[in-house]
Amino acid sequence: MLIDFLRILVGGLTEMEKEAAIKLMRALVDAGFSADDQRADAAIEKAGLEAGLNREQLKAALKYAREHKWIADANKAAWSALTQAGIDAAKKE
Fold first, then answer.
1. What range does the domain containing 31 cover?
2. Of the chain's two ends, which shows fewer C-beta atoms within 10 Å, N or C?
3. In this model, does residue 5 exceed pLDDT 60?
């Protein structure tokens, strides 16, 4: 019983993270981000907030996107790059 409840709870959270991540990917593509284009993390956050994500949703979206390699760390501190997988996710979903 408890295990089933936890699976449902975690599954629901993951789905919410995925939806937020897709919304973020779409916002980045709409803002002109391209694959491997390195941008400051603040620019990525700004695009997400302007797309209507709140801080918690943005945090979850970034976590999910990084775990799924939709956003990768760049060579510079506090910079990231949208990957082709992130662009594909924005267009596919």
1. 2-92
2. N
3. no
